[in-house]
Every structure is written in C-alpha cells, then in structure tokens.
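Table S7 (text form). Paired inputs.
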Amino acid sequence: MKEISIDSKKVQFYGIVISIPIILFFLLILYLTWNELFVQNLKDIKASFQIFDNKKVNTILILLIPNLIIFIAIVVHEFIHGFLWHFFQKKDGNQ
C-alpha cells in the first residue's frame, strides 16, 4: 500500500476555506428561522460583554474572549489526544 501525506499548511487553508461558507450557511438558517430571537440573542451577548465604559476595550473583549475560549478548548482537546495516545500506543515503538 502506498503511503500518502498531505502538507499541513494546505490542510489548514482548506479547512478554513471550507468552514467559512458552512458557518455562514448555518448562521443564515438561524437568522431566517428565528429572526427576532436571533437578533435579540446577539444583542444580549453583546450587552453581556459591556464590562467597561470604554467602547474600544469592550470591542477588544468581544473579539478576544471567544478566541480565548476556543484556544483553551483546542489545548484541552489536544491534551486528551496525547494522554490517550500515551496509554494505547504499542510499547516497542512500532505503530
């Protein structure tokens, strides 16, 4: 059997390119299905991040907090992979 490898930069690029239209599609479906509720929920989320009086700081928080949550989730996710891999890999080094 022939081994095939894929460049990780290509995978990352294509993953983002494919993800964006899918996310936009589902956001559109949510918006069209629950228009008023969807808009109100977005306003509520924005209002919940209004911690400081400074509008620029609040904007930075709105952009930073979701990305920080995603970053932490990725780190935990990859830790789980490494933790399980450690216990289930073959001991002789061959996989």
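Next pair, protein 2 of 2.
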Amino acid sequence: MDSVITGPFLPAPPYELDEREQRALQRAAEAGRAAASWLRELGAVRPIM
C-alpha cells in the first residue's frame, strides 16, 4: 500500500492502513462532503411566506 488518506482534521496514523480501513476512510470523507453539500443547499432554500 503506497498512500494513506489524511486531511486537515485527520493526522497521519502511526501505522499503515490496510485496504479495508482505507476504503472506510474514503467512504466517510465522501459522506461528509455529501452532507456538507446538502446543508449548503438547505441553507440556500428560503421558506415562502
């Protein structure tokens, strides 16, 4: 395994991740981006009154 996923809030782990852990981190990052996008869209919607 050549790469380890890190981000602004994820320090590099003290060990090398296996493929399963790497995929789980990728899915979590994708879910976080999707949630952030949904919240931005929700904030753009204004109630009609």
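DSSP finds one helix and no strands in the chain.
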